[in-house]
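**Polypeptide and fold**
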Amino acid sequence: ALRMDPSDRTARVRLGEMYGDAGRMEDASKLYQDIIRGDPGSPQACQSAGRWDLLLQRSGDPLARAEAWRGTLRDVPDTACLLQCFLVALMDAGAYPEAMEVCKRALDHWPETATFRLARAVLLCHLGNTTEGIAALDAVSLDPADVPGALVENMATLALSLACRQKFPEAERLALAAVRLEPANLWWIVRLGEIFAIEGKNGEALEK
């Protein structure tokens, strides 16, 4: 298909998948980046973003992943899909102030998007403003279909961290939100049980 029409982005996404499956990570990454930069608003750019981010996660280096997104999106127009990938990468790298700036930028464009509103709530908690963060969390209508799994994982990790700092109400709210978003993920139920155990709520912990 590429020989017939080099501009066929759908075929190029498929080729990127083939490169990734064959372990040709650099070739896959370059192809995905070219698609993203070439037409950032296209469905194929969004598909490429998701697949490329999975490749970056496989490297096990959150800082390098965030830097890869930072460089790729330089001078690229904002789209919800691309900013979501960049935002979650920054959060996973612990770059919370920069992540908040990206989140605010996204909310300026798409103020009602649940993922960005949820990310803002989580980031407020990361940055020490747990009262406002939990209030923002309560104001979001949580729909599992709208929230990336990496953001849910970040919430669950933050919940345990807050429990270890004796911020139990906030920890419970975040952990319960993670369970609501991914009810089939037993790890988040275990995480909630861990928080109850740290809090001394042994009955609730045993139930989980």
The longest helix spans residues 43-58. The chain has a mean pLDDT of 92. The CA atoms of residues 154 and 171 lie 12 Å apart.
